[in-house]
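Morning run. Coffee first, then this:
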Amino acid sequence: MSDQDNNQLFVRLVLDVLKPHKPSIVELARALIKIKGMTKVSITTREIDAETETVQIIIEGMDLNYQEVLKILTQLSASVHSIDVVEVSRKYSVKLEKT
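And here it is:
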């Protein structure tokens, strides 16, 4: 989810997602954690219907790529209902002077 401003990094997203029963939330988490920059994935089942599950997905990392997250979810027949939380951090560069 890189932004035009290279100093802004998306570090946390909370998504409300509708998914079929398969893949399981374990398989879904394993697929998402493979995305570059991803450091943590947490999935909580909120509701179970006859053919689907509503889950909350919390993803954390450095400079998260939302398009890659959507790509994985779509490949696994899941869809985002809403983006409930977005956390953005500023990237700082520190220049050290030689003494």
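The chain is about 20% helix and 45% strand. Good start to the day.
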